[in-house]
Amino acid sequence: MSEIILRTKGLKKVYGKQAAVNGIDLKVERGTIYGLIGKNGAGKTTTLKMIGGLAAPTSGAMEIFGKSGAALGSVRNRVSCLIEDPGLYGNMTAAQNMYAKCLAFGIKDKKYVDDLLRLVGLGDVGKKKAKQFSLGMRQRLGIALALVGEPDILVLDEPINGLDPEGIVEIRDTLTSIARDKGITIIISSHILEELSKVATHYGIMHKGVLVEQMTAEELQERCSMRIEIVTDHPDKASTVLDEMGITKYKVVDKETIQVTERLEDVAYINRELNKAGLLVSKIAVNNESLESYFLGITAD
Ligand code: ATP
Description:
- The protein starts with a strand and ends with a helix.
- The strands form 3 sheets. A 6-stranded mixed sheet has the order 7-8-9-4-10-11, sandwiched between helices. Strands 1, 2, 3, 5 and 6 form a 5-stranded antiparallel sheet that branches.
- It folds into 2 domains: about 5-220, P-loop containing nucleotide triphosphate hydrolases (Rossmann fold), CATH 3.40.50.300; about 225-300, Alpha-Beta Plaits (2-Layer Sandwich), CATH 3.30.70.100.
- The chain is α/β, with parallel strands linked by helices and about 300 residues long.
- It contains 10 helices and 15 strands.
- The chain has helices spanning about 45-50, 95-105, 110-120, 135-145, 165-180, 195, 215-225, 235-245, 265-275, 290-300; strands at about 5-15, 20-25, 25-30, 35, 60-65, 65-70, 80, 155, 185-190, 200-205, 210-215, 225-230, 250-255, 255-260, 280-290.
- It binds adenosine-5'-triphosphate.
- Adenosine-5'-triphosphate binds near residues 38 and 41.
């Protein structure tokens, strides 16, 4: 496993009597695109604010680049956040907005600004003022601004929210190039798993302030992949039949269900073999759970 650059332990944030984030243990590896997914109010924004140092945790611990407690201050400038509005100057062009931010970092290099604008797909917006930008362009300029100063971790709260399909593709491409070309670790939140699934390499699924699952993209894919679902009175005996058929990729999921993830075309043949062995099969079908239904299933109330 590669280096874990961000880790939280029992991280909690209470507003009044309500725990917006209720003790989460996050782990983010270097170079990944970590998608924090959850419905509205799940606690994503509050989590990102704590990571970015914009909200103080009520309790729990956080470690970034191996620093925790008071020492966190020394690594804060390696984390850059775009949470809520990108805070653009509407009367300025993309480049002028960038120069305004660069000033604070002592950067005067035109090429530096040009390169970052090109990276987010705004290389040719010229004299257009930010107030004339589409929502997607505003988001991408927000991302370019967040990249000034070469952060190692980029934190983005719902950058896809409200964008049209074209805008979504542009943001996705932008994030993929940032991770690939600059080696920046990205933590991004969304309430739409399907959208996140096109960029994220890792996932944290939040529900009511709790991190209910953490997994890699491969693990998620596996959980949502095509499979034969068999409902029978004796899954243990059914597994013996599958063994005899040379089927190895199966799992007994509960006392009446087996899932098979290979030889999907052999569903009728498997059914016949189970019947031959005297098993009662009340259901056998090829299922494919969509990402969205998987997500809704584990975040059901
Ligand atoms: P959304 O996508 O709607 O922003 P979210 O997953 O980002 O959802 P949060 O914004 O973190 O969720 O909010 C989690 C809970 O904490 C919500 O019930 C919200 O009302 C509450 N909350 C968030 N910020 C504050 C605050 N500053 N004061 C009081 N309650 C807050």
